[in-house]
Amino acid sequence: MRLEQLCHDEQRIIFSELFNALDPRDAVAFSSASSELWALTLELRKQLKGENEAAAALCLKVRLRSCKELREAEEVRWANKGLTAADMEVLGSLGLVLPALKSLIFFERSGSSAGRDGVRRLVDGLSAGALPASSTLAFLNMYVGDAGASSIAAALGRGAMPRLKGLVLNNARITDAGLAALTPVLQQRHEKLEVLLLNHNPLGDEGLAVLLGGVLTKLIVLDLKKTQVTDAGCAILAAALDSGKLPALENYFLDGVPASDAAKAAVNQALAKSRARATPRAAARFEAQSQMTRDIPL
Asked: DSSP 3-state assignment of 9?
């Protein structure tokens, strides 16, 4: 079919399919096919130009040489880059044009310049199918909060990051309510989730009870260091291990929680029994865990 035989709506759809803020060349070339199409896509080209400029500014800020480098990146590991909430929103808007990206890891040594809304604005921009290859999402010492946890759940629920295996939310200000908001989508993905790190968050027994209300088939490591888990939470964890709800679990961390040594010992015993019941795949699972947590501060 010749271009002039397409209606205006069909031409806009084609332009939208070519819309790529990291590489606008194809969209612009398509617009140049005819004077009519050039006029028809004027506003869309203005939008594309603005988004391309924002993406280029973000790349410059994180010391990437070009948008092409971000487009082809398999890993984003940005520590102390001074990212603002607006920067995070720009990255979220690029989710559909980052097909190679496998890991997103953000780390701040002190207060994050992204503020209370940065993480939420990033994940709110992740549409269905965004970040199709990404298996790890990590925010360390960045404010997520319960609202951010709900936004992460919503993004996963609408089909973003379909291959997610590791979720790291360390020192992210998440309470029981935030963990409860995350739980339904984590349980829906129970055959994928391998690593869940939640240390230094003000969550405790109530959130843990919700999380372990269902089966987490592939979970290998669960980090609850410096949370508010008490003896009751340890009993919940031990019961989940005894009942087979965590069949793949190899490691858990309860350092610095209010629970007693006796309660932690009971969890250790339950884990030992669970491992004894497992098929001889522990070495493979441990290797998967090691890869997932590589260079992520625990």
From this structure: helix
